Amino acid sequence: MEIGILGGSFNPVHIGHIALASYLAQYTQLSRVWLTLSPLNPLKERPGDLASDICRLEMLQIAAKPHAGIEVCDIELSMPRPSYTIDTLRALRKRYPSKKFRLVIGRDNWEIFDRWKAYQEIIDDFGVIVYPRPGYPDTPIYVDNVDTVRAPIIDLSSTFIRSGAEKGRDMSAFVPAGVWKYITSHHLYHT
Q1: How does pLDDT run across 26-62, given as a tens digit for each residue?
Q2: In contact, 56 and 93? CB cutoff 8 Å
Q3: pTM over the 0.90 mark
Q4: φ/ψ of residue 67, rounded to 5
Q5: How far is CA 86 from CA 9, 83, 121, in A?
Q6: Closest by alpha carbon to 134, among 160, 115, 114, 164?
Q7: Are 104 and 151 in contact (CB under 8 A)?
Q8: Burial, 2: exposed, middle or buried (Cβ in 10 Å; 0-12, 13-18, 19+)?
C-alpha cells in the first residue's frame, strides 16, 4: 500500500486541499492520501489567526470523512517540535512497516526543497510527488524517485478563508461541507 503524505497546518482545511487529495487518491499510484496535520508555527501566522490543534484536527476529520481514499494523520502533534518532515516520515515508516510513504508537495516547495532537512534522504528513501502551483513552472522534474502530477490547480488559500471570516463574509463555498458550520459554531477566525 502506497500512501501519500500531504502535510500542512490546515488553518483551516479548504476545498483545494480536499480536491488535491482526492485527485491523488484516484488518479495516481497512491492508494490513500493522509492529510497530516502539522503543529502551528507561531512565526508564520498572526496570533488571532491561530486555531488550536484540536480544532484543526476536527475540521480535517469532518472534511475527509465523506471521501474514499482520504484519511487524517495526527502523528506530528505528538512529536517533538520543531517538527521536520523527515522525522515524520521515519516515524510513520517505523509505526507502519508494511506501508510505503511518499511525500506530496507543491511546486513552490519543490523550488526550495534543497533547503529542507535531509531532503536527499526524503527523495531516496520515500520519494516525492510534486503537484502544480499557480505561478510556478509545470514542466516535468527529471529526478529519480520524484514524480510530477497534473492535478487541477485551485488557487485558494487558508489565509483567504480566514480573512473572509474575519470580515464577516460567508466562506461556506470555499471549505468542505460541515467545516464552515464548525468554524462559525466555534467562533474561529472572527475578531
Answers
A1: 999 999 999 999 986 544 655 556 899 999 999 999 9
A2: no
A3: yes
A4: -110, 120
A5: 17, 9, 8
A6: 160
A7: no
A8: middle
